[in-house]
Amino acid sequence: MKKNIFLLLMAILALSSCSKSLSKKEVEQYTIKGKDIAMATQKKLGGTLVEKMKNGGVREAVPFCNTKAIPLTKEMSEKFNVTIKRTSHRLRNPDNKPTDEEVLIIDEFSKKLKSKKALMPVVELDKEGKPHFYAPIIIKKKCLACHGELSVDVTQVSDSIIESYYPKDLATGFKEGDLRGIWSITFNESE
Ligand code: HEC
């Protein structure tokens, strides 16, 4: 009898975990939404950054990133009712530290990039059953002044400004086309 109840419980568990996966259509929808949110956030961060770089170069742009990157990301999170995070395997700000799940995704993207495979966004349910969107962040030319090679792209002066805000900075030495990190967006509605 006990064994039967156990088997029944296992069957219920198996069924309920099945119904918890996302349908193909949901994956498509969250991919579109995630891409839109990441693009809007990038525009918001990047737009002001370009302005600051034009006005005062790295000396003005780095303090802007230091005080505004996380609050601006939070503002966009509230706007879209999601949690937006930018994280990396080579961090500048330790507050952007990746979770175990994010580390796995970053590894997956790195491997794909190395073997020259296309990097596509990933949508899956996270541990809490919330839909989660991940997409690669690739280094472009305009990122190099603050994330490129020391003394080549990042001047000594820029480097010392960055160092003064981020003494544990690991986010230089990148080349155009490298994986800088990922967007990690959690949708607050659970399925
Ligand atoms: C003016 C210098 C500057 C430029 C240009 C710049 N960044 Fe950054 N970046 C920073 C700073 C400073 C931080 C830390 C922000 C913070 O404190 O949250 C940062 C953080 C990040 C992070 C978050 C992860 C981490 O390491 O903390 C990512 C991802 C990132 N940058 C990608 C880019 C990309 C991609 C570009 C080009 C499109 C770019 N950055 C251009 C200065 C810059």
Report on this model:
The chain has five helices and four strands. The protein has helices spanning 2-18, 24-80, 100-114, 144-147, 156-165; strands spanning 82-87, 122-125, 131-138, 179-187. Helix 2 (24-80) crosses helix 5. The chain has a four-stranded antiparallel sheet, sandwiched between helices. It is elongated and about 75 Å long. The mean pLDDT is 92. It has 191 residues and is of the alpha+beta class. Bound molecules: heme C.
Brief account:
With 191 residues, this protein is α+β, with helices and mostly antiparallel strands.
Describe the main β-sheet briefly: 4 strands, antiparallel
Name the strands of the widest sheet in spatial order. Answer: 1-4-3-2
Alpha carbon gap, first and last residue:
34 Å
Q: Give the overall silhouette.
A: elongated
The tally of strands reads 4
Radius of gyration: 20 Å
Counted up, domains total 1
Overall pLDDT confidence: 92
Which ligands are bound?
A: heme C
β-strand percent reads 5-15%
* Element order: H for helix, E for strand: HHEHEEHHE
- Assign the structural class, choosing from mainly alpha, mainly beta, alpha/beta, alpha+beta, or little secondary structure: alpha+beta
The DSSP helix count reads: 5
Q: Low-confidence runs (pLDDT<50, min 5 residues)?
A: none
Helix share bin: 40-55%
